[in-house]
Amino acid sequence: MVLVFSGLIAWDNQRIRLAYEQSQGRVATGWVVSMALSIYLDFINLFLSILRIFGRND
């Protein structure tokens, strides 16, 4: 899961960069919030996956 969410973070960053370049820096507010939320959730899920790996009581 860590690799999956790391890949999603990289993919979302590329998507944000592409949207920024295509709009010459004038991205609509709705898209900015949506993309920022997507990155935020990817980081949260990555953090939770790392906690699951290191938090096991065997």
TrEMBL record:
It is a multi-pass membrane protein. It is found in: Membrane. Pfam families: Bax1-I. InterPro entries: Bax_inhibitor_1-related (IPR006214). The chain crosses the membrane at residues 31-54. Keywords: Membrane, Transmembrane, Transmembrane helix. It comes from the Bacteria. This is Integral membrane protein.
